[in-house]
Amino acid sequence: MVPDRDEAERSDPDEIRTPAVDAVRAAGIEHEVTRHGRVSSLAEAAAARGIEPRDLIKTLVVRRSEDDHVFVLVPGDRTFSWAKVRALLGTNRISMPDADAARAVTGYERGTITPFGSATRLPVIADSHLVGRRVSLGGGAHGVGLTVRGDDVIRLFEATVADISDEEVRQTP
């Protein structure tokens, strides 16, 4: 069952505490905190937060080399482009760390990862589709979202902005 927007709003945002929520509050940027039940897809998460899938940002941890990681922010309706990110980073090889390694670097479980409040401050690469839009990122716990302006995220993390995604191609059954 997908929680609806009214259910998400019933949580008192001031009572929600995660390192990510604390960090966005400390940054002093305009934000909205939502809480909803666990979801099983990006579309369910977007519906629970009352936004379009394109405004739900996937935060990926990418490993350039041993102990060298970056955050990559990609809109929910787009696909991370390995080739574009490799070209941007000037390397022939990048990879995704396993769940344990990603948690060691960020302090967050997969599905909750966000640059806000990360255990390690990593460089951020933001897809150009974040510019000028209000977006929602993970809030550091399952079912917690942070809705902010993409421009604030870019400014706060001094993100590199680039075209690093491709239009998502849906498979027909």
UniProtKB/TrEMBL annotation:
Name by which UniProt lists this protein: YbaK/EbsC family protein
Domain YbaK/aminoacyl-tRNA synthetase-associated span(s) in chain numbering: 38-156
Membrane-spanning segments: none
InterPro entries: YbaK/aa-tRNA-synt-asso_dom_sf, YbaK/aa-tRNA-synth-assoc-dom
Organism classification: Bacteria, Bacillati, Actinomycetota, Actinomycetes, Micrococcales
CDD domains recorded: YbaK_like (cd04332)
Pfam families assigned to the protein according to its UniProt record, in alphabetical order: tRNA_edit
